[in-house]
């Protein structure tokens, strides 16, 4: 699909400097391809594949404003992917992408001991 071109390679800091500040788990189709081809030396299940594709769309929706062209492209591709997934696996349910855990709050510095009177 021609509309998938923006998802085929990682987002570069020069094209979107703030991307890695907002998206903590980047994913793109080149990473998915690498995993499918066995270049990552990991076991890559159908569930992993679906989770990675859904993560691409989740990242798109998180980063881009709802009314932008990129957000619309991501939503349309996501709908198409989900339709095809149901056709391929009509009796199977895949878990949703897990929300990213917020960074832990830093612990407050211990209070200085008060002088004895």
Describe this protein's structure.
This protein is an all-alpha fold and 117 residues long. It has a domain at 8-88: Histone Acetyltransferase, Chain A. Helix content is 43%, strand content 0%. α3 runs antiparallel to α4 (69-88). The radius of gyration is 20 Å and the shape is globular.
Instruction: Indicate the CATH architecture of the domain at 8-88.
Output: Up-down Bundle
The name of the CATH superfamily of the domain at 8-88 reads: Bromodomain-like
Structural class: mainly alpha
How many helical elements? 4
Distance between the termini: 76 Å
Briefly note the CATH topology name of the domain at 8-88.
Answer: Histone Acetyltransferase, Chain A
Fraction of residues in H or I helices: 40-55%
Domain Bromo: 1-71
Biased composition (Pro residues): 105-117
Pfam families: Bromodomain
InterPro entries: Bromodomain (IPR001487), Bromodomain-like_sf (IPR036427)
Helix-strand blueprint:
Layout: H1 19-22, H2 29-36, H3 46-63, H4 69-88
What's the gist of this structure?
The chain has helices at 19-22, 29-36, 46-63, 69-88. It is an all-alpha fold and 117 residues long.
Relevant terms:
117 residues, mainly alpha, Histone Acetyltransferase, Chain A, 4 helices
């Amino acid at each position: 699909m021609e509309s998938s071109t923006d998802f085929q390679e990682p987002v570069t800091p020069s094209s979107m400097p703030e991307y890695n500040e907002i998206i903590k788990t980047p994913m793109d189709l080149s990473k998915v391809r690498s995993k499918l081809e066995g270049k990552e030396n990991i076991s890559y299940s159908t569930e992993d594949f679906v989770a990675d594709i859904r993560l691409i769309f989740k990242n798109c929706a998180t980063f881009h404003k709802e009314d932008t062209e990129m957000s619309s492209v991501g939503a349309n591709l996501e709908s198409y992917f989900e339709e095809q997934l149901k056709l391929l696996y009509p009796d199977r349910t895949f878990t949703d992408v897990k929300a990213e855990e917020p960074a832990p709050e830093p612990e407050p510095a211990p209070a200085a001991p008060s002088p004895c009177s």
